[in-house]
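Board work, copied verbatim: Fe2OG dioxygenase domain-containing protein
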Amino acid sequence: MIVSFAEKMLRLEEMVETLTLEGLGVGGESICAHFGQLTHGFRFSHYDPPLNKETGISMVPHRDDTMTTAILQHEVEGLEVRVEDGRWVAVPPEPGTITFVAGEQFTVVTNGRVKACDHRVRTPSNRERYAMLFGRKRQDGVAVTVLNDLVDADHPLMYRPLKHEEYSMFRYTPEASKFDDPLEAYCGVQKDGDGARV
Ligand SMILES: O=C(O)CCC(=O)C(=O)O
Ligand SMILES: [Fe+2]
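↓ predict structure ↓
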């Protein structure tokens, strides 16, 4: 059963990614080649009632290190996403709904056109909570690169190839926490006088 569920999730994820990439003008062959370099996995999460009853926060704001993450919330609320004006918006745990959040790898692939989604878990009702997550990311050993279709005179290359295993080690270091955007700091193409890492 879990295998057939995973297959369906994969098909759905491919559909969401395809629509997004096609919408940005990426051709079918590039999308196929990109999909050929991905892998996927499931995670199940259980949250005790939040330790801090006042804030209700049980997962701090973060960006995923995936291409995309599909999130299924089971009955109890919690997922919140940060929208453009900085407000946090709750995503209700409606039965049968799946929320897709873009991860940092998708920002690289789309040459910065799709920003990774800031999200967190906050459960004001202080209830125990379950969620299921289906993530898609680049296979180990294969760097994440910008899709050529998304680089042109109006959209210069924004990211060098991202060695994602190395980045995940850097990502949680004290050095990385100094940056608002550690991805940019790690593999952003150097702009005038800006101190991006090589
Ligand atoms: O539980 C959720 O709704 C989201 C969890 C999450 O963002 C994560 O595990 O990265
Ligand atoms: Fe997340």
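The two ends are 45 Å apart (CA to CA).
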